[in-house]
Design goal:
The chain is 30% helix and 14% strand. It has twelve helices and eleven strands. It has helices spanning 36-43, 65-69, 101-105, 111-124, 128-131, 140-144, 179-182, 192-196, 226-233, 247-263, 269-282, 301-304; strands at 53-59, 132-134, 151-157, 160-161, 173-175, 189-191, 204-208, 237-241, 286-287, 294-296, 307-311. Strand 7 (204-208), helix 9 (226-233) and strand 8 form a beta-alpha-beta unit. Helix 4 runs parallel beside helix 10 and helix 10 crosses helix 11 (269-282).
Length: 312
């Protein structure tokens, strides 16, 4: 947020005027903590023992058979308007028990997430064939069958869901490949209670999806949903979002964040995030695929402010 009310002059591109706002990020790297007690607890955690692989990325799941059939074809991005959450028209669904396959199939595919994860794996020197799980493989059975406590960074890039957004959804969840597409059991969701049962030993869990810092339900405290579940499962720090995120902008931010993290691993995570945010504010913005020219600036906080670092 700015330190004082500002008067903005319109720029050549939409949102370009927000570059002149004196955001806190120009001066400070910010980290959130649920409480002072949480900070004390995180700093008392013993050093991790044993050798761990650096990275695991999970994303670009198939929510229906149609995207799966088209997976080998080039995907054109018409505009930077897809969010990593439930489309607005679906958010009035009644709350009942169990999410049906038809509900999951309404979620749009997020091909940007595959590009995001593969690019980050390359930046970190990870083995994409072993360390990035995409498409049909990004399903419940694969994830639950993996040894997850030997990964330093675990990165989900998909749709984030809050209770009530899909009919029958009673807990916060991350969307994975639909079971009928993957040929596995389950409902295609990694829900909060399932996350609580995971065994992690991660320095950083990245939830590159919508609303992943939300509460466990209506009126619940922030981070009481997916955030608290991943901390309980063994995460030392989280990168989460406070509202729906633009998919292309998220890819741009995450990719730059991890390039900086890889270049200076001793640097604080919050500082790497701050630098990536500033680069996004001052950068070219969204490049329209049909013209190859900037269509609008990413300087508006809509694009870069949802993501916050939680933990030390």
């Amino acid at each position: 947020m700015p330190t004082a009310p500002v008067s903005l002059n319109k720029g050549a591109l939409p949102f370009e005027e927000y570059r002149s706002v004196p955001w806190f990020s120009h001066q400070l790297a910010l980290t959130q903590l649920p409480s002072v007690r949480a900070l004390t607890g995180l700093r008392r955690l013993p050093p991790t023992a044993g050798e761990r692989r650096l990275y695991l990325g999970i994303g670009d799941p198939f929510f229906s058979a149609e995207p799966a059939a088209q997976a080998g074809k080039a995907v054109a991005v018409a505009a930077s308007s897809t969010t990593r959450g439930v489309p607005i028209r679906l958010r009035s669904a009644p709350k009942t028990m169990g999410v049906e396959a038809a509900e999951l199939a309404l979620l749009p595919r997020l091909p940007d997430t595959a590009e995001e994860l593969l690019g980050i794996a390359k930046s970190l020197g990870a083995d994409a064939a072993r360390d990035v799980i995409l498409h049909r493989d990004a399903n419940e059975k694969t994830l639950k069958g993996m040894k997850l406590d030997d990964r330093r960074i675990i990165h989900f890039a998909t749709h984030g869901l809050v209770p009530g957004e899909l009919e029958g959804l009673l807990q916060p969840a991350l969307a994975l490949t639909a079971p009928e597409v993957a040929g596995v059991d389950g409902d295609g969701l990694l829900a909060m209670d399932e996350i609580l049962g995971l065994k992690l030993n991660a320095d950083w869990v990245v939830l590159s999806a919508c609303n992943t810092a939300s509460g466990a339900g209506e009126g619940a405290e922030a981070l009481s949903g997916l955030g608290s579940a991943f901390f309980y499962a063994g995460a030392r720090a989280l990168l989460v979002s406070n509202w729906p995120v633009d998919s292309v902008a998220s890819r741009v931010l995450m990719s730059d964040l991890f390039r900086r993290y890889a270049a200076t691993p001793a640097q604080a995570k919050a500082e790497s995030l701050r630098q990536a945010i500033l680069a996004m504010i001052d950068g070219p913005g969204f490049i329209a695929p049909d013209t190859g020219k900037p269509a609008y600036s990413y300087a508006h906080p809509l694009f870069w402010a949802p993501f916050v670092l939680v933990g030390d």
